[in-house]
Amino acid sequence: MQRRDLPPWRAGRARHGTGPGAVIAAFCFHVFGNWSHAAAYPRPTAALACALLLAGPIALVWRRRAPLRVLGVAAAASIAYAPLSAPSWTFAVAPIIALFTAVKAGRSRPAAVITSAAYAAYLALTWVFADPLGVDEAARPGVRVAVLTAIVLAMTMFLGGAARARSAYLAEMTKVNAERARAREEQERRQAADERLRIARELHDVLGHHLSLINVQAGVGLHLMDNRPEQAREALTAIKTASAEALREVRSVLSALRPDEEAAPRQPALGLDRLADLTADAGLPVTTATSGTRRPLPAEVDRAAYRIVQEALTNVRRHAAAGSAEVAIEYAPAELRLTIRNDGPPAPPPDLPADGSGIAGMRARAESLGGTLTAGPLPEGGYLVSAVLPTTTAAAPVGGNA
What is the DSSP letter of 6? Predict the structure, then answer.
């Protein structure tokens, strides 16, 4: 992964590992450690010795692109220079760097073969064929130097393998961190989508309930304006109250979008404690019955119960042509049971198909809390909405916080 805070030329080097540090280090060791000795030979031999000293460091420039070839070139140059100088590690720096790079690049087996062949050639040149080739005694390594050289080569291969393992681990960790970051982003997007869905449901319930009430009361006011102005005044008062309540609930729903530094809303949270206000503004007579031992409910269950009753009464007022409605609330030991019934005609309201936003929204609320909701016309007339909301496992919503 290319770091964005680096300039292009440095980012490319960081990505491909082709920095000049190793080349410069090898050049310094080869030149400053051996140049004076190589230049002391006669001109043809001195030129050859200097060229051999420079061949290894120059070849390191391509060590990432062709690690095995660079290893072969650097090893051959150092071995060819070995008979011209006393044994020294300074002219073996380039082969060591090339060997480390090849092993780190994952070419350990062919690198081991090349290194073994080069080491055998070095011993053959300075030991076995030293006399026929006229190698000076000072250039012949002792047993201690030969053993140390083998140990250094083995340690270089070990360190190269360790560096490769570390690079693989870091790459895997980078991949894991990237996956975790993507998972967090996906979770945040999913949570944002769930929150938008919750806000949409809340707004649907608030606006659907209060605007339908305003519509009904406005129609009543227009009808009674000329003949019964006092009753028209009551209708206008109901419209004012419903619109103010709608504004308060909309502000409450949109409070999730409010910056943290703003003050929290002062109105009480929506729940069954406000059921009396809801039924009083329903626009038709509503009878409420509560059974069981009343107890505090989880906030999401309390809010969902209020919204289900609100949506059911809104649908009654819109479509059922009912004269009254009944709301029954039962506090069972592990669940809350809601029943909303009206006395309208037996035909189901037109807004209540399975794929609509009325019953479908209420059912989604109940299912998000692990509950159920059923709705349908009654044989004797009217419509029944029945919901069961668990109150003991309220912390396991499926589709959001509705």
Answer: S
Distance of CA 28 to the CA centre of its chain: 48
Residue 283 maps to which CATH number?
A: 3.30.565.10
Residue numbers of the domain that contains 332: 271-402
Q: Could you give phi then psi for residue 351, rounded to 5 degrees?
A: -90, 10
d(CA 256, CA 197): 12
Query: pTM of the predicted model, to two decimals?
Result: 0.49
User: β-strand 286-292 against 325-331: which pairing, if any?
Assistant: parallel
Q: Which two tokens stand for residue 61?
A: 């420039």
Q: Phi then psi for 376, rounded to 5 degrees?
A: 175, 165
Q: Please give the backbone phi and psi of residue 383, each rounded to the nearest 5 degrees, phi first.
A: -140, 145
Q: What type of residue is 111? A: A
**Amino acid letter for position 248:** R
**Residues 6+ away with beta carbon under 8 Å from 361:** 201, 204, 205, 311
DSSP state of 349: P
CA-to-CA separations, 147 to 106, 112, 144, in angstroms, rounded: 26, 17, 5
Q: Tell me: the pLDDT tens digits for 252-263?
A: 666 655 544 444
Distance CA 402, CA 400 (A): 6
Choose one of 141, 172, 204: the last residue of a domain.
Answer: 141
DSSP character at residue 334: S
Total number of domains constituting the chain: 2
Q: Do residues 378 and 340 make contact, with C-beta atoms less than 8 angstroms apart?
A: no
pLDDT (tens digit per residue) in 312-326: 888 877 765 677 889
CA distance 24 to 210: 80
